[in-house]
Amino acid sequence: MSASPVIDVDHLTVTYGDFRAVHDLSFRVERGELYALLGTNGAGKTSTLEVVEGHRPAASGTVRIFGASPQDRRVVRPRMGIMLQESGFSPDLTVRESVGLIGALSGRRDDVDRVLAIAGLTHKAGTRVAHLSGGERRRLDFATVVYGGPELVILDEPTTGLDVQSRDALWSAVDRLREDGATIVLTTHYLEEAQERADRIGLMHEGTLRREGTVLELTQTLPSVITFALPPGAPEPPIVGALNGAFHVETFNLQTDLHRLLGWAHDSGVELRGLEAGPTRLDDVFRALSRA
User: Fold this and answer.
1) 171 membership: H or E segment, kind and range
2) CA–CA dist 103, 188 (Å, integer)
3) Residues 62-84: pLDDT tens digits?
4) Is the separation of the CB atoms in 215 and 191 below 8 Å?
5) Are β-strands 183-187 and 34-39 bridged in parallel, bridged antiparallel, or unpaired?
6) Which residues contact residue 119 at a Cβ distance below 8 angstroms, ignoring those fewer than 6 apart?
């Protein structure tokens, strides 16, 4: 990792009139990492990204992209590719024309056919945008983002509307970008995407950054859960947590407690009915954040 971050957000505040959408937000995105900025609805992540992208000024605080202000478009924009939740392509242009036009506006150079192949749109090159499906338009969004190999790629809900095959193809393309050294910022409602791919995750709620870290660091803040039921007349198990005849055990030592429980069940000849056990997942952390 470079000592100089690609994105440096320091005490950012964003307001809409009297409403404060983001308050005193600070985080850094290091060169080459995939950073997922997640949050509950209305958490302020879209407002934050709009400032990072140079689309909205900050009420207070500072944001630096490659050490420059995001408002300095001549410096920042050629190095950044942005995939918004919705893009406004002209319906009368073809896919090829759209990629060429947006690519030229980015200030980068590339081969349109190469970019269409990456996005899986080669067979749609001559199709007008008006005739594309929703998933094809998302792939067109992605094609314009990766044009010219930007150093920083911001993906705002990139897989919404994509089928499984298209989703896999998009992530394969993102992996290739990362191999070439690109830095990725992701927002998504598909938490499994962040859990599987993010190097670090920032969790926002009500305009502030509540938690940040790797998936392991975040999930270790909550206990794992073991659930099971016992047949009538069974002896008491070695761990407690009974509720209406069922057991719900929260533990920060899942492997040790599960091993002890299974050993007891084997030695006692007891069936653990409906046994489920697993580590805390990112969605568990997300739900806890929403209840906070």
Assistant:
1) helix 164-179
2) 25
3) 999 999 999 998 899 999 999 98
4) no
5) parallel
6) 139, 140, 142, 143, 146, 170, 173
Angstrom CA distances, 92 to 95, 122, 241, 279, stand at: 10, 18, 63, 51
Burial environment of residue 180 by CB neighbours within 10 A (0 to 12, 13 to 18, 19 or more): exposed
Position 236 confidence tier, pLDDT thresholds 50, 70, 90: confident
Report phi then psi at 277, rounded to 5. Answer: -155, 140
Q: What is the pLDDT of residue 94?
A: 96
Q: What is the pTM of this model?
A: 0.84
pLDDT in tens, 20-48: 999 999 999 999 999 999 988 889 999 99
CB 37 within 8 A of CB 55: no
* Measured distance CA(93)–CA(89) in Å, rounded: 8
Question: In angstroms, what CA-CA distances link 20 with 23, 24, 43, 101, 112?
Answer: 7, 10, 11, 36, 42
279 CB-near residues (< 8 Å, 6+ apart):
219, 224, 254
Structure letter (DSSP) for residue 234: P
pLDDT band at 244 (very low <50, low <70, confident <90, very high): low
φ, ψ dihedrals at 198, nearest 5°: -75, 140
Residue 217 has a CB neighbour count (10 Å cut-off) of 12
- Could you give phi then psi for residue 194, rounded to 5 degrees? -65, -40
